[in-house]
Sequence to fold (339 residues):
Amino acid sequence: MPMINSISRRRLPRRLVQLFLGLALYGVSIAALVLADLGLMPWDVLHQGLARLVDLSLGTVIIVVGVIVLLAWIPLRERPGVGTVANVVVVGLVADAVLAAVDPPSSLPVRLALAAGGILLNAVATAAYVGVRLGAGPRDGLMTGLVRRTGREVVSRPMAGTTPRRDDPHADDDAVAALIDSNKDDREHRLVVDAVLSALAPSVSSIEVGDPVAERFTSVTHLTTTIIGALHAQSSANAWELAQALHPTPAVGGSPRDAALATIARLESFSRGNYGGPVGWVDANGDGEFAVALRCAEIDGVRARLLAGAGIVDGSDPDLEWAETQAKLEPMLRCLVRP
Fold:
């Protein structure tokens, strides 16, 4: 059933107002971070780089990339909603309008305030437009999905098996082909898929598993499988409970889970701290969506602590695994370290 049909007509006007207000504020938050010139959100690093490369406005690039990413939903069987289409257009238009009307500040305190305000506003805006459940933004549909529950449908998109991106397109295509053909990466990916299936099994009456596909991100390419299940009639598991059942997957904590976590605690000479965990939302009906927060940073004043890992299985090459961790850290390092 389309998302719009599940919303009562009485509440739809208020939700539409909240949707467009949230999207407008999201555009303002992007503009604030651009004006602060102290770092951007990962997607906006891409948007800004493309804007400079092709000599288009930032908002235009946001819209074009949104359309392209939306097309990538087709093989993933994601269903766009009113909010998805509005996101593609509104965010870019508002960002351009604010950037045209406001001059970049030169004062560092003002820039710091703009950056802090932009980050806070981004969080508020995201909660506003996602909370109306009229469709996620196009980029949100490509998140590293841990689990999403909508009504009786459960969707998980485990990712494991990785290769760094290459600058040369032909070399990148060759690396992706090698990833798809790799027995080692197939074993690593299957461990995660099997763990997700086992965790979901008590709650679902049927489950469908897609074929692994290579999904390209800014710095790495992951093997990804889409899993779709239907909650059985007796299951009352909400999205948060399903996320708890899945986390940590073997991609985060190893397999078998308890033995792997005990081994990590025994062998590693440091604490991983807040290494990875589910981030998302759940509503009063139990619907919601959680993604895996990985390769983030713990920031304390002017110091930042980043961690990235790799799945070690039979056939792993130490040098290649080390290169993989470096590629995984690259997006956060680009945000934190200015040349």
Observations:
- The chain has a mean pLDDT of 84.
